[in-house]
Amino acid sequence: MGTHRAAVGVCVATVLLVACSIDRMGTGVAASDAGLDATTPPPPVLEAGGPMDAPPDRAVLEAGRDAADPIAACQAVCPSVGGACDASGTCVLTCSTSNSCASQVVCAPGVPCKVVCSGSQACAAGVACGGATACDVECSAYRSCGGKIDCGTASGRCGVVCSGQEACGNGIACLSERCSIQCSHYRTCKNEITCAGSDCSVQCGGNNEACDDVTCSTVAGGKCRVECSTYRACKKVTCSADSCDIVCKGQEACGVVAATARNATVSCTSYRSCTSADCPGGDGCRLDCSGPQSCASGICCKALVCAGTANTCT
Fold first, then answer.
1. pLDDT tens per residue, range 97-139
2. Residue 175 CB: number of other CB atoms within 10 A?
């Protein structure tokens, strides 16, 4: 009997040992070893083709890459308009020979743009900035940019420099947030300049008779400064921005000046500058007609507060 009981005990121990071994080999770790309650459900198993197997969205990856890499963004659109990307990711369109870029030059959308019209009579049909995020236009040769320059609604800024003789002869229009327009040679910008951004700056100087008509009508809270600094620059200046600063310091500069801004300052400080100066409304207007024979055809201020040269308005 003793021998029989010992044999049974050995068998029981062997069975338990084998069972534990099977549990460890079959499940990897027993519930007691993992420190988990035996009722804890196992983690879900993803089937093939589930979310973990879905490839990343290529468009999303490319958009993120382009947003972080301005050069990649430029290279994606610039070649289609005939431009080349510089080191900053600006799309540059160059018209450097005589009569080059005879059709309208159009910027690529979504990236900064720079148009260089340095050949004689280059960019004859003008420039359209379109949907560029910023736009710079340089017209540095004789009669370059013969067509209209349209800044469009470039979200950041638009800068136009007309430094060639008789350059920019068919008007400039800027609706960008910030506009800077410079006409600095003989008879440059001999058509209407319109500026309707929130911050406008127009400079008409250089060698005589720059700029014909300049009109500023900025958005609410906007400001505009117009400077006509050479002989017969600016035949007519009209400003209806919230804040206007009009400076006529060239001989016979600014033929007719009308400032309908909420607050305006008009300075006519050279010989025969400002044929007439008019502030038909607004909160306040300061007129300075201190130049010899300036404002010869009259000074009229109907703003709530008028200051400066005596009013001759009837």
1. 999 999 999 999 999 999 999 999 999 999 999 889 999 999 9
2. 17
